Amino acid sequence: STKQCTPVNGTKPRRPQSQIAVSRRTTLGGAALLGGMHIVDSASAISNGPSPRYWDPTDLVIPGMQKFRDLDLDGAASDFDEAWLRAPSVRPFLWQRGIALYFQSRFPEAADQFRSDVAVNPRNTEEAIWAFISEARMDGPSQARANFVQVPQDPRPVIQAAYESFKNGGGPEKILASSRRDGDQSDFYARLYAGLYFESMNVGLFRDNTAAKKELLAACATPYAQQSDDYYAAVARLHVNVRGWSA
């Protein structure tokens, strides 16, 4: 297993406010959006019991996110899948499930998850990118690009550069140029999406993941990834673990 993305210490880096909000996925991420929602248990509602049970979807989503952080991909996906089955009303918001499904190579389900998210929140740029990545692994980048999910301009420079690069092709240079390349949050995200770009373009029988591996390992090695509790730092760590990549 790889040692990349292991926190250097137990503290979070103090970052200037101007560096914050490259991604909306921090700490509990999307799970926080589900907090306080008590859903009728679908299984109980159709049973012969005296009354339906109520539960909070985060009872599954938060443990699933922790399993993902602990590199337990199958356990995380199982929790997210159960939340998806039991609470149809929160299905479009389970972006964590989409990422887990991608790494399980369940590409059609992953793409559907991301597209349903954008359908209810048309400003979800990252989900539009992940939908493309999933579909590129199924159908190839050219066909996936023809069906690219359209979203408005994203105010985050790295994410907007990533969106344009995936949508228009031509390489990840624009993504990498959008950050200061000094190990901060924007550097982490630029390298993460550059690695995902290379992986999404690299389909077919004979794959060469050298470029994707280089950028994903570089993302994991940034001080931001080493010290942050950003969920996407766990995404990068799990990515290199699943692929069996190490420096």
What is this structure, in a nutshell?
By secondary structure, this protein is mainly alpha-helical. The protein has helices spanning 31-34, 42-45, 58-69, 73-86, 95-103, 107-120, 125-139, 141-146, 157-168, 173-177, 185-201, 210-221, 223-227, 231-243, and strands at 39-40, 54-55. The termini are close together.
How many individual β-strands?
Answer: 2
Estimate the global geometry from the Cα principal axes.
Answer: globular
Major sheet details = 2 strands, antiparallel
The residue ranges in which pLDDT falls below 50 over 5 or more consecutive positions are 6-21, 26-33, 35-47
Please, what is the average pLDDT? 84
User: What is the radius of gyration?
Assistant: 18 Å
End-to-end separation: 11 Å
Strand order of the main beta sheet, please?
1-2
Going by helix content, strand content and strand pairing, the class is: mainly alpha
In percent terms, what proportion of residues is strand? under 5%
- The helix content is 55-70%
Total helices: the number is: 14
Summarize the helix and strand pattern as letters.
HEHEHHHHHHHHHHHH
